[in-house]
Design brief:
The protein is an alpha/beta fold. Among the domains are: 172 residues, FAD/NAD(P)-binding domain; 57 residues, no CATH class. The protein contains 12 helices and 19 strands. A hairpin with a 2-residue loop joins strand 18 and strand 19. The protein starts with a strand and ends with a helix. Bound molecules: flavin-adenine dinucleotide. Flavin-adenine dinucleotide binds next to helix 1, strand 2, strand 3, strand 9 and strand 13. The site of flavin-adenine dinucleotide has 39 residues, from helix 1, strand 2, strand 3, strand 9 and strand 13.
Length: 377
């Protein structure tokens, strides 16, 4: 049985590598020549995710953070100190390190176009066509999900994506804290400063689809009077931030990573859950090849704890998006009053937010009505 994995990002490389390690025939199809190309990312990941990558820190880590500073629309700030809880990695190098471990067949500079009757149709960068036989296809092609419509019954609504723009600067930055700005300029999402070092940072913004993220970025920089330094480059992409998909598989076609909405809707972070989604899918395909269980069943089962966490992130996003600036300001004050930072410092986990959102802690009781309304608990 041959598996074709479309997309050499975090999710695709991991699925292809795991299946290949088990001895199965795999193709890794990637439209670019180098896995570094075409990736838009700030590279902020939790320690937990970093550990799951199994790559030495000297290879990819640019910075280790002390915590986060979150700003309300009026400039009110909550500072969360959680030393060494997160690192900033060089995303291009990360993908290059991951793909080094893959020993199967590579079909790079090929774009996957369609899949019919176990035939995957590809087009080379130079224009020639090619067809390969594949019994199983994994769509790991990122936010646009090349084969999503073959798997899902309905088209995903526009509000389930945000449009992001970010630029990299050489200047003077506080290397210890990632900064998050919540305001109406970043409508539907937020703006951020992710320091890679004292003199390099990625500064970006996400907005609802249909708004111009670059225009909003300029507005954000002007409003906050940010001193940026020299621009080294910029990039733009969409981030899937919708409801997680419980069963992103139909017979022999499966979605994974951004294609399957395995991103935290509250933050847009997708590296950790793409990896976990990939582990879940590789196990499911392996069991199907060995005729132990159907991949459709195993993948959905393996995904259920992941979906549980992703669902909470999605509810938090819905809640946040329901607030206007005045309500957001009030919520911020409420959070400050209950000294939320201490609570987050103790229980916070960038990946598993269920513990944090548990009402067991009486400090969160003032937020109970909101939590119930948005089914966060
Ligand atoms: C501005 C921005 C900042 C972000 N910052 C962070 C962050 O700090 N931390 C974090 O965890 N996440 C972050 N993310 C999200 C993260 O980048 C994604 O969740 C992650 O890259 C998903 O990995 P993936 O493997 O699913 O897809 P991708 O990494 O997008 O890989 C998909 C691959 O498929 C290839 N491809 C696409 N279509 C085809 C086709 N038809 N044929 C062949 N190849 C194809 C692409 O070239 C690409 O290489 C950010 C996203 C954005 C947009």
């Amino acid at each position: 049985m041959k598996t074709a994995v479309v997309g050499a990002g975090i999710a695709g490389i991991r699925v292809a590598t795991l299946l290949n390690e088990k001895g199965w025939k795999t193709y890794l199809v990637e439209e670019h020549k180098d896995v570094k190309e075409g990736k838009v990312c700030s590279g902020l990941i939790s320690r937990k995710t970093f550990g799951e990558l199994d790559i030495g820190p000297e290879k990819i880590v640019l910075n280790t953070l002390h915590g986060a500073r979150i700003y309300s629309p009026s400039g009110n700030m909550i500072e969360i100190n959680k030393k060494r809880a997160a690192v900033v990695v060089d995303r291009g190098k990360l993908d290059r390190e991951l793909v080094k471990k893959y020993r199967g067949e590579r079909l790079f500079e090929y774009k996957a176009l369609s899949y019919r009757n176990n035939n995957l149709f590809l087009r080379h960068k130079k224009g020639s066509g090619r067809m390969i036989k594949a019994d199983f296809v994994v769509d790991a092609s990122g936010p646009l999900g090349t084969f999503r419509e073959l798997v899902l019954p309905k088209k995903i609504p526009m509000e389930n994506f945000v449009h992001a723009y970010q630029a990299r600067y050489k200047g003077m930055f506080n290397k210890n804290y990632v900064e998050i700005y919540l305001n109406n300029i970043a409508k539907g999402f937020f703006a951020w400063v992710t320091p890679e070092s004292r003199d390099r940072a990625k500064i970006g913004i996400g907005v609802l689809l249909g708004l111009d993220p670059k225009e909003r970025f300029n507005q954000f920089v002007e409003t906050y009077n940010l001193s940026l330094g020299k621009k080294l480059g910029d990039e733009s992409a969409v981030i899937p931030v919708g409801e997680p998909i419980r069963k992103p598989i139909k017979r022999n076609i499966a979605l994974v990573g951004d294609s399957a909405f395995q991103t935290k809707a509250s933050s847009g972070g997708g590296i950790g859950f793409s990896l976990r989604g990939a582990n879940a899918l590789a196990d499911a395909i392996d069991k199907e090849i060995r005729k132990k269980a159907r991949a459709e069943v195993t993948y959905a089962k393996n995904l259920s704890p992941i979906v549980k966490q992703l669902e909470l992130h999605w509810k938090v996003r819905k809640f946040y998006n329901s607030l206007n600036e005045t309500q957001l300001e009030k919520l911020f004050q409420k959070l400050k009053n209950v000294r939320i930072e201490e609570f987050v410092e103790k229980y916070g986990d960038m990946e598993e937010i269920d513990r944090l959102l548990s009402i067991a802690n009486p400090r969160l009781l003032p937020l109970l009505p909101e939590f119930i309304k948005f089914k966060i608990i």
